[in-house]
């Protein structure tokens, strides 16, 4: 079974984002980064599928050379190969352009039975790239997967989360899955694998190499952010003190005051 996992390098979620007033962008220079957490669940799912059904895991990312750090984390977990798509023309790409570019890269790299993505990246929380890749490739997709139930001859059954409960869905291979945190617990890299990952060559592919049309990416993306701003700070709440009866009475009075109840 050939498996590909898309990973994204994002600012560390412990860092409070700041905006550069000159560029109206989030400041990333000098900011600590990490693999988007849901992508680690996707890597773990790929490794488990390879262990149970044979084959290997390839990881793919899009960004500048620093994104090799995230790819090496996936390699140190057990992935066999890694590729980076990097090209100045990709700067300012929207979700559609990123999906298009990754789909082109996947077609360039080879044929895959399963493609795995995190359910969303934690920097913009759009959750659109996985579905976009499947659409570009013309393959089955299942989103918000929290369990891989069964893998059969050319089909896969998975359980997915919905607003009203859970569904068990069967899909034809090849299929793209977007992964929930509840799907698994990502393994820790071993020292041996980390040393191997640090020595591995990571091919860098530009738009020309994968056959991506630069008129569809970057500043030519079909959508653009018109304005980016930090939300207004929230006012601190009021702390009600006293015993349970007093707190309950005061809370109800204040709710009535505000016409909430």
From TrEMBL:
Residues 23-214 form the Electron transfer flavoprotein alpha/beta-subunit N-terminal domain. SUPFAM superfamilies: Adenine nucleotide alpha hydrolases-like. GO terms for molecular function: electron transfer activity. This is Electron transfer flavoprotein small subunit. It comes from Flintibacter faecis.
């Amino acid at each position: 079974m050939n498996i590909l996992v898309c990973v994204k390098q994002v600012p560390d979620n412990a860092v409070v984002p700041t905006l550069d007033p000159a560029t109206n962008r989030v400041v990333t220079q000098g900011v600590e980064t990490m693999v988007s957490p849901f992508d680690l669940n996707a890597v773990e799912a790929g490794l488990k599928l390879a262990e149970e059904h044979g084959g290997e895991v390839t990881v793919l990312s899009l960004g500048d050379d620093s994104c090799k750090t995230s790819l090496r984390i996936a390699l140190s977990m057990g992935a066999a190969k890694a590729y980076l798509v990097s090209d100045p023309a990709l700067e300012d790409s929207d979700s559609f352009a990123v999906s298009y570019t990754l789909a082109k890269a996947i077609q360039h790299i080879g044929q895959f039975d399963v493609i795995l993505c995190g359910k969303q990246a934690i920097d913009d929380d759009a959750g659109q790239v996985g579905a976009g890749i499947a659409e570009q490739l013309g393959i089955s997709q299942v989103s918000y997967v929290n369990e891989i139930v069964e893998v059969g001859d050319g089909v896969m059954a998975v359980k997915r989360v919905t607003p009203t409960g859970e569904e068990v869905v069967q899909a034809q291979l090849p299929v793209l899955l977007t992964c929930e945190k509840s799907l698994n617990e990502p393994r820790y890299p071993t020292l041996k694998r980390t040393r191997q990952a640090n020595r591995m060559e990571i091919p860098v592919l530009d738009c020309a190499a994968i056959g991506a049309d630069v008129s569809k990416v970057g500043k030519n993306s079909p959508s653009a952010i018109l304005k980016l701003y930090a939300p207004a700070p929230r006012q601190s709440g009021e702390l009600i003190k006293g015993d349970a009866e007093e707190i309950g009475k005061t809370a109800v009075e204040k709710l009535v005051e505000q016409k909430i109840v």
